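agent> fetching stored inputs for the NDP docking request
agent> found them:
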Amino acid sequence: MEQLIKKSLTRAQICEEVRPGPSSIIIFGASGDLTFRKLIPSIFALFKKELLPKQFYLLGVARTKYTDEEYRNEIKRWLLNENEALNSVLSFIERIFYISGNYDDDSLYKLLQEKLNSLDKMFETQQNHIFYLATPPSVYLEIIRRLGQFELTKENSGGYSRVIIEKPFGSNLETAIELDKELHKYLKESQVYRIDHYLGKETVQNIMMLRFANIVFEPIWNYKYIDNVQITVAETLGIEHRAGYFEQAGLLRDMFQNHMIQLLTLVAMEPPASLEDSSVRDEKTKLLKSIRMYDTYEIDKYFVRGQYVRGTVNGKEVPGYREERNVNPNSYVETFVAGKFLIDNWRWSGVPFYLRAGKRLKKKISEIAIIFKEVPHSIFFKNNVELEQNVLILNIQPDEGFSLKIQAKQPGSKLCLNTLTMDFKYNEFFNFKGPDAYERLLLDAMVGDQTLFVRSDAMELAWKLLTPILNKWEQDKEKGLLFYEAGSWGPKEANELIARDGREWR
Ligand code: NDP
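agent> prediction call returned; pasting tokens
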């Protein structure tokens, strides 16, 4: 009994939300899409849940000219449109301030210094600053250099100074290393928070719980029992209003360098010794080092890239990628990628990891499917009729949860087998919609927990893996680019990639 009480006490303590000390968030790019759609609503959600410290303020920085009052009104309008309660919105916006200027202009940073000094005093935030770079990546370096030159990245005056950097972090291995090198002139790695919002999603965090808080999965989580792993991140949306960005990036940079590789890493890494950020990040790095790098001549064999053409998505006709606004009508940028990854270590020897992601696909879905091997000897069917394999599916969105497919007897006098699905849906079980990924990550940044942020070495290793592929595609340009109808599952060659191994996408 005593032990039980002790255990449940510990569990309750674990569940307690960590409350950050005095903090401020300074958003560069405060007039932009990410700020309004994700950052402000997430900070507001933390405010409503009383997870923000009492000593807190938010300062927006961008080129657009607003007074504090005008910026507050923009935010008020946005939140009221989202059906938020007027009273809470009014008390929230009292903590919001705004300054404008050009990022390459010293006077902006002088103004910033003055503003921070006065706001730190007013809100007693002890000079604790989180700078969030929500601008286009082309200005990241400029901002960091100036913050450094104006000593805003220094921590020796008592408070902390942390910088959250949005993806994309560089555009290939070379530019990522260059950006990192420059960053480290002004910041220690412990001050850098490279954000990948996928890591803040409840179900992504649950991968570690599922694997390492249960005894049943880990013993079979290896080449002896797992046949293959499939990771799919499919979107029905096109590029929306982000043509400028997407034309530069393409899908491999946009999805694989960060989200897809991170998901793979969480599924495949070894159990960390503890939940401490360095421990988890060390295991991720170790895993990344064991992903096989292909020779240039193998790239076409293991990777398929496609671009959508006009088609029908959710019953509505949509234009092809080259017909989208601000897209080059001869663009060879990929909107779909499928690839086969192999991990050269003891646990995963010979187990392929098939990854695919794309825009304007048939269904919006993000999931990881762990497909187990067949039973070694079937006593149920003669004539080599195959039994369906067990599959564990981790649903990341939209129906967050997981399901396990198993074989069971169908009621009746005959010996008939059927596939059952044991389903767990987060929302149904907990009767609670989990927080947005940005809420979790912003809170973690305020308490200084870097576990869910990408460390420099992991970022570099992901680029190292993908840069040869990008180089090959850049060389080949249109050669090798396949076309798929919007509303399909991508080019048929993506099916052939996996069919060659005698498998199919589930
Ligand atoms: P926006 O294109 O909306 O730009 C943000 C703000 O930056 C703009 O409001 C603008 O403000 C300023 N800006 C635009 N162009 C320039 C420029 N050339 N020089 C200086 N400032 C400029 O970007 P998002 O908000 O969509 O994204 C911000 C960052 O977050 C990007 O790095 C993006 O890749 C990343 N990201 C975005 C996601 C999203 O869903 N939007 C998702 C994941 C990552 P002003 O003109 O007032 O200065």
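agent> quick read of the result: The two ends are 46 Å apart (CA to CA).
agent> awaiting further instructions
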